[in-house]
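Example record

One chain of 198 residues, shown exactly as stored in the release files.
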Amino acid sequence: MSDDLVAFLRAIGAGEQALVGRLLGDGPELVVARLGRGEEVFLAECALQLYQGDTALHVAAAAYDTDLARRLVDLGADLRARNRRGGEPLHAATRGGPGSTGWDPARQRETIGYLVGAGADPNAAAAGGVTPLHRAVRNRCSGAVEALLQLGADPRLANDSGSTAADLTRWTTGRGGSGSMEARAEQQRIVGLLGVSD
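Predicted structure tokens for this chain:
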């Protein structure tokens, strides 16, 4: 099944809806399948690194495909599935950011709203104590930050290094393009959302 799963995840990442539907019809077990350690792969289709434990719902979330995420959950996908780095589908939905491939703030917000409404935990901690809010701030996604705050994300939670979401607004993220005008504008919106003062 590993080849089928990788083909399915690639189709999701590429937005090939007809192929996704066909593969899902032929292999309903793909809804709950998880990548093995030897199957870790980079999806060039959507610039997404996949890890052991990632599922179709992780990729649908990362692609901001709310309709597919809804369909997968209706078919039994696990909203709380964790990859080997502790990332859940909601963490995947916070990927992207200014200058990145496929970033769509409106669709990202919609996907985050759906996942939390369906039962994802906005305060779930991945490896290092990183919550979806930490990731959204680091990626400079103000819309995702706003959605998570509205849906119950706690901005006071610290990661294992002791950093809160507000702390991450002050530091260079290490992400490519983080110094662009668009990224700086996103950073300023996030500062306002988190009520960060100098």
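Notes: Strands lie at 41-43, 48-50.
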